[in-house]
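dude i think i finally got it to work??
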Amino acid sequence: MSISIVYDSGYGHTKKQAEATAEGVRSVAGAEVRLVAVADAPVDWEALAASDAIIFGSPTYNGTISARFKQFMEDSTRTAWLPQAWRNKIAAGFTNSGSMHGDKLNSLVTLTLFAAQHGMVWVGLDLFPGKADDELNRVGGWLGAMAYSKDESPELSPNKADLDTARHLGKRVAELTQQFVAGRA
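look at this
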């Protein structure tokens, strides 16, 4: 079972979230994960088409996804959308911003719509919102994993709870992908 995590990270915070998501994927037996940073173009479109699931991640800038991630989305039109290369694949997403709210929901909606246009099956977060800074899903997302990174280095932020939430999402996607792939066999 192959899962790709396609992400952008301007300052390193969202990269940490992508890496934590990958750890969650790896915690499921038989799951292989590939991290794809859109800034490291070119994108291996064939590898994405061969993936059983794709998890999308972008920082939230000015209330939406990053320009580089938007470019990735536009570049996917001829290579993945027209041939429906990602149709019926599992999809999920995560985002990070420099404020507790930061309009992260809009970024997750953008990622969800992108996946829907590709005919993908979206997996949300199955965690009730945490009540404290050290609890999973402390930012309160249902559509995907959200993280809050203070204006500090990626070594300090996002916090452990946000990274554990990303790990949880990665594990959830791998478990559901495993069920989905087994059902297709």
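The first strand starts at residue 2 and ends at 7.
im so relieved honestly
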